Amino acid sequence: MESYQSKDITELAKALLAVQSQLQPALKDAENPFTKSSYATLNSVMDTCRAALLANGILLTQFPVPAETGHLGLATKLIHAESGQWHSSLAVVPLPKADPQGYGSAQTYARRYALCAMLGIITEDDDGEGAKMPQSARKSRTPAHERNQTRNTYPAREESSGLPKIDGITYQNITSTDGRPCIIAFGNTQPKKEMLMGLGFKWNAQRKMWWKYADVA
């Protein structure tokens, strides 16, 4: 890729400013079994930015490109639909294994890191901030496969919670450290804070997240 942006990006820059004003930190929703540290999956990163990008007319596309042997090349491109202006990046990462599984792992890794870098997305520090936040709003340390299962069955959980669907808002079920089920709301929350408060959600300034007990109306 010889050029990483269109000649003029004025309209794209305005739209990206609006996107960044709406972004919340990506939630660390999985745990690395080797390092015992939590991290934000690609699903979490996409949940954080997808609604804001669409609301501001920005198309996100990520696709593999040729790279040297043993490496994966990944292009990430943000396109302003109305003006056609664009901005892109190229990431080249080594393959952990020279097989389809290694290729897929490298691609997922590159996609989330490239997207975070381009949009300025940060992740919540479960270990650093966990000691500061109320126990009632801490994220449970359930195994990664269980948290992924919760995410995959999310629509049914959302219906059972009785919470209305709000455009740009995603609900996620977690368990607090005191064993009580909690619901967190994330996405484009800033313009919807009055609605969230009306539903009983509380804002945790340290964690920058909206949460409520699932068993409290």
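(ticket continues) Second input and output from the same batch:
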Amino acid sequence: MKTIDVLAAVLLVVGGLNWGLVGVANFDLVAALLGGGSFLAKVVYTLVGLSAVYQAASLRSIQQRWRVQTALA
């Protein structure tokens, strides 16, 4: 399961950097690389969104698998 955790984290970083660029420079890197509105760009956006849902829904179990303790635990 750690592979999916890492993949989700990478996709969230990609999404976060993309949104940061949109906010600061009004530049959508995913659209620039893959074509605005293209099927591949939509796949990337969808995977980023699904990664966020996965991370939010499984935060406690991810912390347990990785043996991470936080103030919230």
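Agent notes: The mean pLDDT is 89. The chain is about 75% helix and 0% strand. Closing as not reproducible unless the customer responds.
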